[in-house]
UniProtKB/TrEMBL annotation:
It comes from Hirschia litorea. It comes from the Bacteria. Its cofactor is Mn(2+); Mg(2+). One of its GO terms (molecular function) is ligase activity. The gene is rimK. Keywords: ATP-binding, Ligase, Magnesium, Manganese, Metal-binding, Nucleotide-binding, Protein biosynthesis, Ribonucleoprotein, Ribosomal protein. One of its GO terms (cellular component) is ribosome. ATP binds at residues 302, 339-340, 348, 372-374. Binds 2 magnesium or manganese ions per subunit. InterPro entries: Asp_endopeptidase, ATP-grasp, ATP-grasp_RimK-type, ATP_grasp_subdomain_1, Peptidase_aspartic_dom_sf, RimK, Rimk_N, Rp_bS6_RimK/Lys_biosynth_LsyX. This is Probable alpha-L-glutamate ligase. Residues 265-448 form the ATP-grasp domain. Mg(2+) 1 binds at residues 409, 421. Pfam families: RimK (PF08443), Rimk_N (PF18030), Zn_protease (PF05618). The keyword Nucleotide-binding applies.
């Protein structure tokens, strides 16, 4: 390296020549130990003595059709705790990094950074002693651009038939049947896999999922339809499919985040997404203070375990709220106390998000005298045209959770849209029958666009450990 120290700002362009990546915009973060690179469809291959990893990367966050398939030797697998506190077992690769004409080897962990602004985090172990980081500056090194990817093959909707697994415990319900129909209509092969009947060896060198006495084949894509009661086990099964390199329509991680209602609310708040003023508690001593955190008027108290509106109660006065919470206190159940958004008029809006788009929206109106709009409680649905702001909020909420497919429920309040919840396995029946849109096909199309084109040579090799 040269005599003058290499200077880096807090954000820089770099290239990773060994991976065939001419331009990556990275955040230099001395708070992070190891560098991390965005990767999906991560799939190990090669021999046990010389293990390699293949993954797909979308270098430009604004251009999802630009995909580069990379391969590198695996140097380690390591537990990494990210800034949001999640611990993840990641593959570590070794590769050269290049800034201007200076090049040196670094270690990089692979993780899904789809929802992050930067495709790469440049950590402190990648920065050598003769370099300086100037946190107040950016782009000290030569600026590159995504134009360098001109001429790279663009992704086209897959013409090839895909092998898809639909993970569900209810293969006969409307949503699963429609997904099956849509996949088959588009020429794909789809299998219904009962989540609960999957089993697996965790430490296998070659990750597998077993079913009825045999290992399941390698799928191009997995559609998780995991019910609330199966969240924990379903996520484990899905993670296994992820490790096998299948494209999962929603990742296990994103399902976990959206299912944890407290975490989901905290995450939405952190990203400044509008929601009703919300407080949560388990067994509070100071009921009055808890109620005041949720505003000054009527409140809605929700048991966290509730679904289909069952554990959701309206307290129209402070007194009513107090006695309600006092009753909950003995149950040691976690619950939310929320400002009651009266002007929503017993209605909410379900926005069905696929990728970066709201593909359909319906307004659900509660039965006469009912503030809960759940269709299971006798609510009725109608088509609604969303405002630009509502669309934006729905897409942002799905992004924040990391979901590609989501049912985002919004209350229309006098101060703009307020998010109620984000569902990771939204049902198709209400939305399709009301809007007359073929949402199932849109989900399959999303898979066609995002499931990486598999190099069959690599896949055949990885199927048999050598
Ligand atoms: N803060 C609120 N203000 C006004 N109405 C609300 C509020 N919270 C909930 N509601 C109404 O009650 C219904 C049920 O509430 P929510 O969706 O939070 O619980 P849930 O339906 O039991 O949960 P899940 O959808 O996971 O089954 C909502 O669809 C909405 O119509
Ligand atoms: Mg609901
Ligand atoms: Mg829900």
């Amino acid at each position: 390296m040269s005599d003058t120290p290499l200077k880096l700002g807090w954000e820089e362009w770099l290239s990773l020549p060994d991976l065939g990546l001419p331009a990556i915009r990275a955040k230099v973060d001395t708070g992070a130990k190891t560098s991390a690179l965005h990767a999906h469809a991560v799939e190990p291959f090669g021999s046990i003595s010389k293990p390699q990893i293949r993954f797909t990367l979308r270098p430009n966050p604004d251009d999802p059709d630009l995909e580069v398939v990379c391969a590198a030797p695996i140097v380690d697998r390591r537990e990494v705790t990210s800034s949001n506190g999640e611990t993840e077992l990641r593959y570590v690769i070794s590769t050269n990094v290049q800034f201007g004409d200076q090049k040196w080897p670094i270690q990089v962990t692979l993780t899904n950074r789809e929802t992050m602004a930067y495709r790469m985090l440049f950590g402190r172990t990648s920065i050598t002693e003769d370099m300086a980081v100037l946190p107040a500056e950016s782009f000290i090194q030569p600026k590159l651009s995504y134009d360098l990817y001109k001429g790279f093959p663009r992704k086209k909707a897959a013409k090839r038939p895909l092998r898809i697994a639909l993970l569900t415990r209810e293969p006969n319900n409307y949503s699963c049947q429609r997904l099956k129909e849509a996949a088959e209509q588009r020429g794909h092969h789809i299998e219904m896999i009962d989540t609960r009947r999957c089993y697996m060896a965790i430490n296998a060198q070659q990750p597998e999922v077993h079913y009825d006495g045999k290992p399941l084949p390698q799928y191009d894509a997995v559609i998780p339809r995991i019910g609330a009661s199966m969240t924990f086990y379903g996520m484990a099964v899905l993670r296994q499919f992820e490790m096998m390199g299948a494209y999962c329509l929603n990742s296990a991680q994103s399902i976990g985040v959206s299912r944890d209602k407290l975490y989901a609310h905290q995450l939405l708040a952190r990203h400044r997404i509008g929601m009703p003023a919300t407080a949560f508690a388990s067994s509070p001593k100071d009921t009055k203070d808890l109620i005041s955190l949720a505003g000054n008027g009527a409140v809605v108290v929700k048991l966290l375990e509730s679904t289909q509106g069952k554990g959701v109660v309206l307290a129209e006065t402070k007194k009513a709220a107090e006695s309600l919470i006092d009753a909950f206190r003995g149950l040691e159940a976690n619950f939310l106390v929320q400002e009651f958004v009266k002007e929503a008029g017993g209605a909410d809006v379900r926005c069905f998000v696929v990728g970066n788009k709201v593909v359909g929206a319906i307004k659900r109106q509660g039965a006469e005298g009912e503030f809960r709009s759940n269709l299971h409680r006798g609510g009725s649905a109608s088509v609604i045209k969303l405002s630009v702001e509502e669309k934006k909020v729905a897409i942002k909420a799905s992004k924040v959770m990391g979901l590609s497919v989501a049912g985002v429920d919004i209350l229309q309040s006098s101060t703009g849209p307020k998010i109620l919840e984000v569902n990771s396995s939204p049902g198709l029946e209400g939305i399709e029958n009301t809007t007359k849109k073929d949402v199932a096909s849109m989900m399959i199309e999303h898979i066609e666009l995002h499931a990486p084109v598999v190099n069959t040579a690599i896949r055949t090799r990885s199927a048999k450990p050598s």
